[in-house]
Write a structure and sequence with these properties.
Radius of gyration: 26 Å
Number of helices: 4
Number of domains: 2
Number of strands: 17
Structural class: alpha+beta
Distance between the termini: 77 Å
Helix content: 25-40%
Length: 332
Amino acid sequence: MWRMILIALLMSFVSVTANGQEQQAPASTPPQVAQAKEIHDAAIKQAQDAYHQALIAADQQYIADLDAALKDAMKNMDIDSARALDDQKKAAIAILKRDQGDLETAGSSKSIGDIAIVGPAVQEQNTSLDLKDGASVYIYGVDTGGGRSSNDLNSGSKVPIKNSQGNLCAELAVSLQPHNEFSTDCAYYCIGGLAAKGHRFLQAVYASDNQPGVSSVQIKFTLRAPVVVAVMALAAAQSAIQLDGPDQLVIDAHGPNDAGSLPLTIGHAVLQAGDYVLTERSSFVGSDTQQANRGDLMGLFVFSQTPDVLVSDSPALQLPAELATAVQKDDR
């Protein structure tokens, strides 16, 4: 009897205590804690991003070195070495794709909502590029010294420019394929690209100048809604690029910007509705004797969830027919 009364009293006490705890207001978090946590999380993310970007850069350099050695082996008719090098290159490409996947998983993709730009990359002295599978669209750029002939990228809807010598010196392409390549007789060249997904609509415009001594191109544009934009700038027969634009613009991948290299720069920004100006300035490091071979080309790519968000007087970059059809279907 007493045991039952004691149990009942204990249960009543526990119930009252629990109710009292539920009614107590949770302790407020001082603003200094939230601020310190935000700084901490940003530092961790920056370190993670830097680590993954360094891995990808090392992978890309390894592939470029293997590709150069493979070409030498083929020229020398060393079939055994060529096969071994080709096997190593394929394995290195697989590792690159894995590391690019880790970069995306780590949250380093450039995004707003479901829109994400993944794996921006620039490879010096390489004529092919593999981007991450599974994206909605792939954007490529090619930059050459412009002194000799080059062929177009083999995939995508393209915007090529020829310099005053009549040689293809820079090109942009929008493709649905994660691999692209070109060929060139130039001594210096590079290829770059990025993948994008999560968007419903893509609009693209470009600016170009193929006059001898060119050193700048510009795009003025208006946005009607929040978007993610990507920028790709190329400067044939030059060695340095500077991009001036919105404060939100972040450079994701670029060439070394020094003598003996070709500049190709990729950036992104998350922008709100408003008016913007984007300017590419190019220059040559060292003795500039190739002004007749110059050509500047810059593309602006706007990814959005609503149609017709981009307004610009710059010429539109034509999209692949399959992508344009998909956009039209979404718009109906």
